[in-house]
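Report of the visiting student (M.T.), summer placement. My assignment was to run the structure pipeline on a short list of targets and document each run. The first record concerns Thiamine pyrophosphokinase.
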Amino acid sequence: MMATESTPVQLHPAKYLQAKAEGSNGDSGVALIVLNSPISDHEGFRQLYRHASFRLCADGGANRLYDAFGTESDLLPDLIHGDLDSLDDAVREAYEKLRVQVSEDPDQYSTDFGKAIKKVIEHLPEVSDILIHGSLGGRVDQGIGLLHELYREQKFRHPKVRFWLFTEASVSILLQPGRSLLHTPLSKGLIKRNMGILPLYGPANISTQGLEWDVDSWPTEMGGQVSTSNHIVADSITIETDHDVLFTVEKAL
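After the run finished, the structure tokens were exported:
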């Protein structure tokens, strides 16, 4: 997944927001993890679900799925997994009646997100993309913790897997050192022009093409200068970095 000078990493931030027919098979090698966060964009969530071939609710994520969709037959999880301290008894009973598997991992030194990743790899060894439905709009410690775990899993534990974070308003992915070509067709109405390149994991030097305010060998770091609220102005943009950065783009809700 590392880029080279001649072969940039090709990324499609809007890919999993595209409409997929109800009842169609999920994309091969794609999994969905539902975290314990409100599901406000029901139609957008349906597309994430349909693109995935394996769907896991991380503990209280099952409550959120149930609150949003009840026991709709086309939106059942394949597995509910975690330490189960957040899973409502009534929700568990409702899903178990429909033969949804529930498994427990009592380890208190790992989060439900970390437990979910391990379980996805176990059930789908050929996984290439993991879609994460979560939130950055609640507690600050949980939001920062999620961005930390996203980095850890992508960078150190599963570097061959691409992690996509879908929050209330954005799609976010980790860009590793090298050159990335991101396909951003705004005309499809799936993403908006607002985006950012965030040096959350250390100082970086970045160069861009296809943004309203492009930069060249531009140093960026927390406490220094940061590219937020920039605008996409092309159907594809190029970002080159010498250190890991978080790319985020606004969804068209």
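The CA atoms of residues 82 and 112 lie 5 Å apart. Residues 26-168 form a domain with the Rossmann fold fold (CATH 3.40.50.10240). I thank the supervising group for their guidance throughout the placement.
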